[in-house]
Design the sequence.
């Protein structure tokens, strides 16, 4: 890939690094296509991957948002075509059944914040900075920002951050529930991978169904959500992993899950 560095540092874990350091890992059309292919590929063929950690190259930027220099002289038709790819990539990220942890190593502005919000949860370096900055260049969030930000921090805070485009710190992001944890920059990816390893040790089908049910909870009433939860729960009863998990518990040993 041209814009993503993909590694498998541990069994069942994928480390994906946005890799355009010369432009602070800004999103161009190549990155849009590669993110789309990544998320769709993981949905269609997870290949025993149980967790993804998403970070950026270097210590200055996670992602500076859209590459506006690359868009400087394109036509409106081309702009819309490119954004259509980004739309598909963000929906594919949302639909990815595998847990995604963002390890925000630096500035996350515009689309960078939206990638953070598009993950299942996020850790941030103490030096990370955030901004929903699109209004400063005559745009508005277009990568699920107006949907995911209020779900994270509440509608009133989301309006303040979106209308002003102001920069906020990692500590503020933690206080406002946009990230889950603030880390030393040197240990950020290690801590994210450590959590990914804990996730990967659990039954993958159970984690998948739990993720689906949690996502449904964000746009359904509690009774409808519970119907979905029970259906997801029942799909796990006949699985090998459920049998293995209960057996291992009673035999007082660590279970070995195969995603079956």
Sequence:
């Amino acid at each position: 890939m041209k814009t993503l560095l993909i590694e498998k540092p541990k069994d069942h874990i994928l480390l994906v690094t946005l890799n355009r350091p010369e432009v602070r890992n800004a999103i161009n059309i190549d990155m849009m296509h590669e993110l789309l292919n990544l998320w769709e590929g993981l949905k269609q063929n997870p290949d025993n991957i149980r967790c993804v950690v998403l970070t950026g190259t270097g210590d200055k930027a996670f992602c500076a948002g859209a590459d506006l220099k690359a868009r400087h002289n394109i036509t409106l038709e081309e702009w819309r075509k490119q954004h259509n790819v980004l739309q598909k990539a963000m929906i594919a990220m949302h639909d990815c059944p595998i847990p995604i942890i963002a390890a925000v190593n630096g500035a996350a502005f515009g689309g960078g914040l939206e990638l953070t919000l598009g993950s299942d949860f996020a850790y941030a370096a103490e030096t990370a900075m955030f901004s929903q900055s699109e209004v400063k260049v005559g745009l508005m969030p277009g990568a699920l920002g107006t949907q995911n930000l209020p779900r994270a921090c509440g509608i009133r805070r989301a309006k303040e951050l979106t209308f002003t485009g102001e920069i906020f710190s990692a500590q503020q992001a933690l206080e406002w529930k946009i990230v889950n944890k603030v880390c030393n920059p040197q240990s950020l990816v290690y801590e994210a991978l450590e959590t990914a390893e804990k996730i990967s040790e659990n039954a993958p089908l159970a984690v998948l169904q739990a993720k689906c049910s949690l996502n449904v909870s964000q746009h359904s009433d509690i009774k409808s959500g519970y119907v979905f939860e029970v259906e997801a729960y029942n799909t796990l009863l006949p699985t090998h992993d459920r049998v293995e998990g209960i057996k291992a518990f009673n035999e007082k040993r660590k279970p070995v899950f195969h995603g079956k």
